[in-house]
User: Which sequence fits this backbone?
């Protein structure tokens, strides 16, 4: 089946630093990748949608200059949290869709803790 | 904007019984709806997709119904097992994305 990996699985950083999270589709080409964040006991909130080779589309309220998304290839998307603050601490999950398939395949998530 | 509600935050049932989870939505008419399973600290895993013109979809012990008049989907797990314990999320299709409910945490008691 379709497998999506994320790296790192968890990261602890100091306030003010930048953190990069990678999302890879391992056995399929992901035309579209999605980035979500999830707070404890809450649902997934879509942050942005990215298509390979084009700029990401951000959801309302998500700062594009703070959450930089790069979808450089059909198997890799990165999310960089710039100048991270404690309120950015969350569970970040990516997902990928192949072609125009409706099903999204999710990565295992990255737990970010900003001190 | 669309609103998605899953009937309860938590549901406990006895092993062997049928678990029924509810997803209600308003202000929206999705072309399809999906159900996902999420284990603690993990990403969601796709289970089933049901389209607006389908009343019911089955997969092994899972069954999903979709009532576009009531704006409701029901998710059933028959002959439940402790291994079915997880959070189950419903997701409605947007133009190019999914809108997720808050999930129901199911616990199957041995």
Assistant:
């Amino acid at each position: 089946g379709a497998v999506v990996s994320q790296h790192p699985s968890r990261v602890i950083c100091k306030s003010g630093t930048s953190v990069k999270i990678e999302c890879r589709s391992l056995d399929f080409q992901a035309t579209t990748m999605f980035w979500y964040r999830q707070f404890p006991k809450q649902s997934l909130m879509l942050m942005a949608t990215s298509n390979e080779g084009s700029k990401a589309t951000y959801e309302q309220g998500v700062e594009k200059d703070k959450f930089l998304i790069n979808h450089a290839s059909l198997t890799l998307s990165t999310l960089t949290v710039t100048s991270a603050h404690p309120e950015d601490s969350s569970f970040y999950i990516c997902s990928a869709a192949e072609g125009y398939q409706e099903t999204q395949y999710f990565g295992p998530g990255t737990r970010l803790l900003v001190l | 904007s669309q609103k998605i509600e899953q009937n309860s935050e938590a549901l406990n049932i006895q092993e062997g019984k049928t678990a029924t989870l509810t997803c209600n939505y308003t202000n929206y008419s999705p072309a399809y709806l999906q159900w996902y399973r999420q284990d603690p600290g993990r990403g969601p895993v796709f289970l089933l997709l049901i389209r607006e013109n389908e009343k019911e979809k089955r997969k092994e012990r899972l069954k999903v119904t979709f009532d576009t008049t009531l704006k409701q989907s029901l998710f059933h797990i028959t002959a439940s097992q402790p291994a079915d314990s997880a959070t189950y999320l419903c997701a409605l299709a947007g133009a190019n994305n999914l809108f997720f409910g808050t999930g129901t945490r199911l616990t199957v008691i041995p």
Remarks:
- Chain A touches chain B through 23 residues (CB under 8 Å).
- Chain A has a mean pLDDT of 92.
